[in-house]
Each structure stands twice: as C-alpha cells, then as structure tokens.
DNA sequence: ATGGCCCACATGGTGGGA
C-alpha cells in the first residue's frame, strides 16, 4: 500500500496536477490539504473517474481536507471530537484495516500571535484525539501538513529560522509530544539525502536555491512503521508550471 | 530594506499562507 500526503494549495487550480501525478504514481491513499473548496464544488466526478473514492471536508476560501482511496473508505469522521473548530482541517477514515487521519495543522502566522496560540491549542487537542484513535487502532497513520519542521536538518538555514514560526521550540515540542504517543516519522526510518524539504516559498527563487522546509509528514504507529519499506519526497511536481508550493510525500507499506 | 509570490474573493486591494 502506497500512501501520500500533499498540500495542493487549491484543488481547483491543482486538479490537473493531481490527476497527472496519480496517473504516473499508482498510489492507494492520498491525504490532501488546502482544497479551498466548499463540498458542493468538490471535483468528485473527476477523481472517481481516475479510480478513487473520496472523503472530503471543505469550506470557502481556506483550509479543506480530503482523502482519496482506491479501496473502500469507512468510518469517516470530520474534525476533532475533542476540539470545536469552524476550520475544516481534519478528516479520519479507515481504509484496508488502517486508521488514517488527514491533518492540516494551523500555520500560526507569527510566534506570539493569536493564530500561534490557536496552533498550539489545536495541537494539544489533536494529541488527545490521536491517543484515543491509537488506543482503538493498532494500525494508525496521520499524514499531513504539520507546518512544523522537526529538526535543524529539516530547515535550509536553521540559524535564520530559529525561534520563528514553523521552527519555534514550543511548536517542535508539540510535535515531539504527539510523536511520543508512539509515532514514527516515516521519512526518518530510512537513510535520506541531505537537504530534503517538502515546501519552498514561491518568492526569491526558493525552490531553485533549495531554500525549503520539511513540514509535511507521515507519522506511523509502531505496527505500521514495521510495515514501512520506503519513504520519499517527490520534488518533481514543484518543477511543473503553476505548482503547489508543497511537494507530495510518499510512503510504502508492505502487505 | 521583513518585501518579493501565489490563491481566493474580488474586480481594487486585502487576508492568508509558510
């Protein structure tokens, strides 16, 4: 089973990229963030035609998440039952015996801002929910845009980013606490090339200079980590015309 | 020099992203 997370930054704009990518990459489950579409505008027919069943939870202009799957999607839950949130950032579903959560963690905007406070509170509540889901599902995976770079090697210039949004100590501590529930970063289960990032700013030719952050992650329960045989970031889409600023992250699970 | 770019909503410029 191949599983993917990809922040597409508007599914309306990026649908053709998604379909093109799926055609070249026959994967089983795709967690998508920032669809920026209300549910009535979701491109369900196009994705069904590509061979995917879909669960989605969107809103106007901002946020919005979806899970695509070749296998049947069961027990869909929208939002965190432990946190009231008008923003559509979370979607859970069971596929092929695996419990998935698709997560779009708040950006936080600036350390110390109201949005930063919301980000940390949101992450705290996420941990409560994930603990409950993991207690109920041995095979558990949470994929998404975490908007947090876990370590210095996940940041193109750690000195420049130290203490700033996406790399502040409280954010990194929140991610560590989530992972302390027993989750492994699929990407770090394997030897990886240096300077691997999943997001690059649109400005300043950041992609060409590889000035990026690794903020999109696939976290796996112990049982799934033992099944995981590979994980990589697919930089190719970022070279396409009018790309998302995020690249897909792909993990392979043995049967 | 703290912005530059991209998207949505709008139809000029603002809010948000990361």
TrEMBL record:
<feature type="site" description="Important for catalytic activity">
    <location>
        <position position="216"/>
    </location>
</feature>
<feature type="active site" description="Proton donor/acceptor">
    <location>
        <position position="145"/>
    </location>
</feature>
<dbReference type="GO" id="GO:0003677">
    <property type="term" value="F:DNA binding"/>
</dbReference>
<dbReference type="InterPro" id="IPR020848">
    <property type="entry name" value="AP_endonuclease_F1_CS"/>
</dbReference>
<dbReference type="GO" id="GO:0006281">
    <property type="term" value="P:DNA repair"/>
</dbReference>
<keyword id="KW-0460">Magnesium</keyword>
<feature type="binding site">
    <location>
        <position position="34"/>
    </location>
    <ligand>
        <name>Mg(2+)</name>
    </ligand>
</feature>
<keyword id="KW-0378">Hydrolase</keyword>
<feature type="binding site">
    <location>
        <position position="147"/>
    </location>
    <ligand>
        <name>Mg(2+)</name>
    </ligand>
</feature>
<feature type="binding site">
    <location>
        <position position="245"/>
    </location>
    <ligand>
        <name>Mg(2+)</name>
    </ligand>
</feature>
<dbReference type="GO" id="GO:0008311">
    <property type="term" value="F:double-stranded DNA 3'-5' DNA exonuclease activity"/>
</dbReference>
<feature type="active site" description="Proton acceptor">
    <location>
        <position position="246"/>
    </location>
</feature>
<dbReference type="InterPro" id="IPR005135">
    <property type="entry name" value="Endo/exonuclease/phosphatase"/>
</dbReference>
<comment type="similarity">
    <text>Belongs to the DNA repair enzymes AP/ExoA family.</text>
</comment>
<dbReference type="Pfam" id="PF03372">
    <property type="entry name" value="Exo_endo_phos"/>
</dbReference>
<feature type="site" description="Interaction with DNA substrate">
    <location>
        <position position="246"/>
    </location>
</feature>
<keyword id="KW-0464">Manganese</keyword>
<feature type="active site">
    <location>
        <position position="104"/>
    </location>
</feature>
<dbReference type="GO" id="GO:0046872">
    <property type="term" value="F:metal ion binding"/>
</dbReference>
<feature type="binding site">
    <location>
        <position position="7"/>
    </location>
    <ligand>
        <name>Mg(2+)</name>
    </ligand>
</feature>
<feature type="binding site">
    <location>
        <position position="246"/>
    </location>
    <ligand>
        <name>Mg(2+)</name>
    </ligand>
</feature>
<keyword id="KW-0479">Metal-binding</keyword>
<feature type="domain" description="Endonuclease/exonuclease/phosphatase">
    <location>
        <begin position="4"/>
        <end position="246"/>
    </location>
</feature>
<protein>
    <submittedName>
        <fullName>Exodeoxyribonuclease III</fullName>
    </submittedName>
</protein>
<dbReference type="InterPro" id="IPR004808">
    <property type="entry name" value="AP_endonuc_1"/>
</dbReference>
<feature type="site" description="Transition state stabilizer">
    <location>
        <position position="147"/>
    </location>
</feature>
<dbReference type="InterPro" id="IPR036691">
    <property type="entry name" value="Endo/exonu/phosph_ase_sf"/>
</dbReference>
<dbReference type="GO" id="GO:0004519">
    <property type="term" value="F:endonuclease activity"/>
</dbReference>
<dbReference type="InterPro" id="IPR037493">
    <property type="entry name" value="ExoIII-like"/>
</dbReference>
<feature type="binding site">
    <location>
        <position position="145"/>
    </location>
    <ligand>
        <name>Mg(2+)</name>
    </ligand>
</feature>
